[in-house]
Write a structure and sequence with these properties.
With about 400 residues, this protein is α+β, with helices and mostly antiparallel strands. It is about 30% helix and about 25% strand. The structure holds zinc ion. It comes from Virgibacillus byunsanensis.
Length: about 400
C-alpha cells in the first residue's frame, strides 16, 4: 500500500509504469464506437470489467440495446464535495481518406498511439479510469466523492448527457472536469451550438409558368441571404473567439424535377453562440424575421425547428476548481498556467445547468479531433493521469 501522506509525482509515475494504462487505451481504440450508429456497448463492457477488477462498481443506464451511460463512484472516508470526471464513449466516423494504419489498430509509433478516438476522447476517458483506480486502491481520498461518468451520443448533440440529467442518473455536483482534447491545457469557456432545421413551403407549378406557383427554393435563398445580413449573425471584428458567433448553412435539399416549380425546400443552419449572443437571442431574431416576412400571399411560408440547442460554457477564473487546477500545475510541474477558450462544444453545455464549475482538460490534441490518422501523444496521456489524480486529491481535500 502506498503511503498517502508521502504521495508525490514520483510515486504516481512508478504506479503508472507498473499498471500500464496504455494497454487499456489500445483496447479502447480497437473497440469501434463510431457514431453513427454510435453503438458503445463493447466499450461499456471494457470499462465495466476494468473498474470491477479494481473493486469499483459501475451503474449502467441503457437507452436502448446499443447505447448506455456509465456512472461509477469512489467515496472518501468522510462526507464532502463531489467532483465529476466526465467524458463521452462515441467517436466521429473514420472519414473518406485512407488511414496509414487501420483506425481501429491502436498502432504505437514514436511515442504516439493512433486510431479513431485516440485524442477525442478515449485517452481522456482511460486516464480518468486509471486516476480513479489509483485513488481507490491507495485510499488517497479522505473526504468527498469522486464520480466517473461516460455518455453516449455526445458527437450527435450530447443526447446521452441530456438523458443523464433528465433521468437523474447523476445529481448535484460541486465541480466537473471534462477530458476532451485540450493538450492538457485548462479550458474554461467554449461556444454553444444551435442547429436549426429550416423548412420552406411554396406552391408547385409547371416550370414554364413559374408565376403560377410559389418557389420554395427561392424562399429559402431569400431567407438565408436576409438572416446572414442581420447584425446578430455577422462576425465580430474582435478576435477573441468567444465574442465571435458564427453561422453556416450545412445542408440543403429541394425540388422534384427539372421542369417543376418546387413546393418544398429544407435546410439546416449551424449557429455557434457566445455568452453575449445567446441561443435564445438568435431564435428570437429568427422568429421575428419570419413573422415580419411570411405574411404575403406570394412568398413561401418558412418555419424553423431547433434540432440541437446547447448553451455556451463560461466558467469564471475565480471558481475553486480553476484555482485548485492552477495550483496543482504549479505544485507538481512548477508551471504557472493561464486558462484558455475553445470553439467546440462539449457535454459541459448540458451539465452547466447543474453547476457552472466546469473545466475542460484532456490529453488529446484539439487539432487531431475528427481527423484522419488521429493520434495522442503517450507522454501527454500519462501526464493527464498524474494531473487527474493530483487535482482530485487537492480539490476533495479542501472539502
Ligand atoms: Zn469529443
Amino acid at each position: 500500500m502506498i503511503n498517502v501522506e508521502n504521495l508525490n509525482l514520483e510515486i504516481i509515475r512508478q504506479w503508472i509504469q507498473k499498471h500500464k494504462p496504455i494497454e487499456l487505451l489500445q483496447e479502447a481504440i480497437q473497440c469501434d464506437s463510431v457514431n453513427p450508429p454510435g453503438n458503445v456497448m463493447d466499450f461499456v463492457k471494457i470499462i465495466q470489467r476494468t473498474l470491477y477488477y479494481y473493486g469499483i462498481e459501475t451503474e449502467i443506464y441503457r437507452s436502448n440495446l446499443e447505447k448506455a451511460n456509465i456512472v461509477a463512484k469512489v467515496k472518501g472516508k468522510h462526507k464532502g464535495k463531489r467532483l465529476i470526471f466526465s467524458g463521452h464513449l462515441d467517436t466521429v466516423p473514420i472519414g473518406e481518406k485512407t488511414w496509414d494504419h487501420s483506425p481501429f489498430s491502436g498502432h504505437i509509433e514514436n511515442g504516439k498511439i493512433y486510431g479513431r478516438g485516440s485524442s477525442d476522447m478515449k485517452s481522456g476517458l482511460v486516464a480518468f479510469i486509471y486516476a480513479m483506480i489509483f485513488l481507490k486502491s491507495t485510499q488517497a481520498l479522505s473526504t468527498g466523492e469522486l464520480v466517473f461518468i461516460a455518455t453516449f451520443d455526445e458527437e450527435t448533440g450530447s443526447l446521452g448527457a441530456q438523458q443523464m440529467i433528465k433521468e437523474e442518473q447523476i445529481n448535484e455536483f460541486d465541480a466537473m472536469i471534462i477530458g476532451e482534447p485540450t493538450d492538457n491545457e485548462i479550458v474554461t469557456s467554449h461556444k454553444g451550438a444551435l442547429w436549426v432545421k429550416v423548412d420552406s413551403f411554396g406552391k408547385t407549378a409547371h416550370g414554364s409558368m413559374p408565376e403560377s406557383g410559389v418557389n420554395a427554393i427561392n424562399g429559402m435563398k431569400s431567407f438565408i441571404d436576409d438572416i446572414s445580413g442581420i447584425s446578430l449573425f455577422k462576425d465580430n471584428i474582435d478576435q477573441d473567439i468567444l465574442t465571435k458567433s458564427t453561422m453556416a448553412v450545412t445542408m440543403i435539399e429541394g425540388g422534384s424535377n427539372y421542369n417543376v416549380i418546387p413546393d418544398y425546400c429544407t435546410s439546416t443552419i449551424d449557429f455557434r453562440t457566445t455568452p453575449d449572443k445567446k441561443n435564445s437571442d438568435i431564435l428570437n431574431a429568427l422568429h421575428t424575421y419570419i413573422s415580419n416576412t411570411s405574411k404575403k400571399e406570394d412568398t413561401p411560408h418558412i418555419s424553423i425547428k431547433p434540432i440541437v440547442n446547447l448553451a455556451p460554457l463560461n466558467t469564471l477564473d475565480n471558481t475553486e476548481i480553476v484555482k485548485v487546477t492552477k495550483d496543482t500545475f504549479f505544485e507538481i510541474y512548477n508551471i504557472n498556467k493561464i486558462t484558455k477558450r475553445m470553439n467546440y462544444f462539449t457535454d459541459g453545455s448540458v451539465f452547466s445547468s447543474i453547476s457552472r464549475n466546469i473545466i475542460i482538460l484532456g490529453p488529446g490534441e484539439p487539432s487531431q479531433a475528427h481527423q484522419p490518422n488521429e493520434y495522442v501523444n503517450i507522454k501527454k496521456f500519462n501526464q493527464s493521469i498524474e494531473l487527474y489524480i493530483s487535482i482530485a486529491k487537492n480539490y476533495l481535500k479542501s472539502s
